[in-house]
Write a structure and sequence with these properties.
mainly alpha, single chain, 155 residues
């Protein structure tokens, strides 16, 4: 049992490290939407195998969708974070953009003060938002939002 817990901790550390690297890459590649749209247009005109074209166009569309989600939430997102937001939004469509952004920050281990500061809201306002998120996620008041998000929305 102890070995399993150690392995889980090591895997979580690797995931955190990979997410940090993806965040760094996402920041480097900011504002690529015009380039991606141009690339998509050029892919339409290429005369290549249709299955390869479909794969390339799918990748391009996912990157465009990630960019659009990042702009909507006013935050830089890696593809994994965009997938997390997409899954969370699909399961809980009643969450607004600010709540989605706060859920992402909670998942990344930001505490209430850090979230309040980065979101430009008061500590009391943050408590109110967390209360609303609890209700919208349908979890008990004593249940952890972080644990819920981590266990139910891998990525």
């Amino acid at each position: 049992m102890l070995e399993l817990q150690k392995e889980i901790a090591e895997l979580k550390a690797i995931i955190t490290e990979n997410e940090s690297e993806l965040n760094r890459i996402a920041l480097i590649n900011a504002d690529n939407a015009p380039i991606l749209h141009n690339l998509l247009d050029q892919l339409h005109t290429l005369e290549i195998d249709s299955s390869q074209k479909r794969v390339l166009m799918g990748m391009c569309l996912r990157l465009i969708e990630t960019e659009a989600t990042a702009n909507r939430l006013n935050i830089r997102l890696s593809e994994i974070e965009a997938l997390f937001i997409f899954r969370l939004e699909k399961k809980h469509p009643n969450l607004n953009n600010r709540e989605l952004r706060i859920c992402l920050l909670i998942k990344h281990d930001y505490d209430n003060q850090e979230i309040a500061r980065t979101s430009e809201i008061s500590s009391r306002g943050m408590e109110s938002i967390r209360y609303k998120i609890h209700k919208k996620l349908g979890i008990g008041k004593n249940d952890s939002i972080k644990i819920y998000l981590t266990n139910h929305f891998i990525g």
